[in-house]
């Protein structure tokens, strides 16, 4: 494959793409300062060669975001749903108690970082793996992924489809899930427990302009960072995509996700806040994915 085979490559914002790439270039043995005498487009073309991962039109794209939620430091009628840090005995990589066992007991008593307005918002924050909390006194707190209980992730959206709550899978979005939960408050806990996976958080010291931390431990960038299966695409690798709803764009593999498995699977980070959340929830598209493989 040649560079002219990538529609839109010549018009890409290679400067923005290189700036994102530079934050994790060391993961693939490079530096953001490599070939500094060349413009960014020439750097990419010199260091890499494009390789199609799956047949055009078969790559599967979804998106994620960083929620912004009202929160409180203490439990109340308005803020009943906790976000937890790992308990002292928790060992990353080991199987711990399921979501149902956690919710029905006191296993995480004393591990509450903050409280949000509903169980479904706490759950969706876990799915995203990061959250910005805004307290009533005007202060804020950034939380990031600190581990999970080792149980497999199961989609509650897929569960609602299985129950024929939604007949068309393409119509399943977080807003549909929120609406169902609002209409069926007595069934929310049971629905959430169909996903035994549980995510713990940690407090992050990040500037407000920064994206959340990805799996590399470094901030991700809106519309430039991609979650991938690292068994298929090494973290730090540039990835060119053609995705309906976003167009052609050069992203960088800088994150992973429980549901992001296999070749041609990508989850695009779209930013923070409600608008990004609406866009992310609506993203479920087939397109094209081309990995930029480092030249030997």
Return the string of H and E elements.
HHEEEEHEHEEHHHEEEEEHE
Counted by DSSP, the helix tally is: 8
The radius of gyration is 20 Å
**Uncertain ranges:** none
CATH superfamily of the largest domain: RlpA-like domain
Mean pLDDT value = 95
What gap, in angstroms, lies between the N and C termini?
16 Å
Helix content: 10-25%
* Principal-axis shape: globular
Major β-sheet, in short? 6 strands, mixed, barrel
Tell me the structural class: alpha+beta
Provide the number of structural domains.
2
As a percent range, the share of strand residues is: 25-35%
Q: Tell me the CATH topology of the largest domain.
A: Barwin-like endoglucanases
Which second-level CATH architecture of the largest domain applies?
Beta Barrel
CATH class type of the largest domain: Mainly Beta
Strand order of the largest sheet: 2-12-9-11-10-13
Number of strands: 13
Task: Describe the model.
By secondary structure, the protein is α+β, with helices and mostly antiparallel strands. It has two domains: 3-64 and 212-294, Barwin-like endoglucanases (Beta Barrel), CATH 2.40.40; 67-204, Barwin-like endoglucanases (Ribosomal Protein L25, Chain P, Beta Barrel), CATH 2.40.240.50. The protein contains eight helices and 13 strands. The chain is globular. It starts with 13 loop residues before the first helix and ends with a strand.
Summarize the structure.
With 296 residues, the chain is an alpha+beta fold. Helices cover 21% and strands 29% of the residues.
């Amino acid at each position: 494959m040649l560079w002219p085979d990538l529609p839109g490559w010549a018009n890409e914002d290679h400067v923005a793409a290189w700036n994102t790439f530079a934050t994790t270039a060391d993961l693939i043995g490079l530096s953001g300062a490599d070939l500094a005498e060349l413009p960014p487009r020439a750097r990419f073309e010199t260091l890499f060669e494009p390789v199609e991962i799956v047949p055009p039109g078969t790559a599967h794209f979804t998106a994620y975001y960083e929620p912004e939620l009202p929160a409180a430091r203490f439990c109340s009628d308005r803020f009943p749903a906790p976000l937890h840090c790992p308990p002292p005995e928790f060992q990353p990589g080991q199987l711990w108690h399921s979501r149902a066992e956690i919710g029905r007991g006191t296993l995480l008593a004393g591990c509450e970082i903050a409280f949000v307005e509903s169980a479904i918002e706490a759950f969706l924050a876990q799915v995203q793996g990061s959250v910005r909390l805004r307290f009533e006194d005007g202060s804020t707190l950034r939380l990031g992924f600190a581990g999970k209980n080792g149980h497999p992730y199961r989609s509650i959206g897929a569960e609602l489809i299985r129950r024929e709550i939604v007949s068309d899978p393409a119509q399943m979005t977080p807003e549909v899930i929120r609406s169902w939960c609002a209409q069926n408050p007595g069934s929310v806990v049971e629905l959430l427990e169909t996903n035994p996976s549980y995510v713990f958080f940690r407090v992050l010291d990040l500037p407000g302009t920064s994206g959340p931390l990805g799996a590399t431990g470094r901030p991700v960038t809106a519309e430039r960072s991609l979650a991938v299966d690292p068994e298929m695409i090494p973290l730090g690798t540039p990835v060119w995509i053609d995705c309906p709803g976003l167009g052609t764009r050069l992203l960088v593999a800088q994150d992973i996700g429980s549901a992001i498995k296999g070749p041609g699977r990508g989850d695009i980070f779209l930013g923070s806040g409600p608008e990004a959340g609406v866009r992310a929830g609506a993203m479920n598209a087939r397109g094209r994915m081309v990995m930029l493989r480092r030249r030997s």
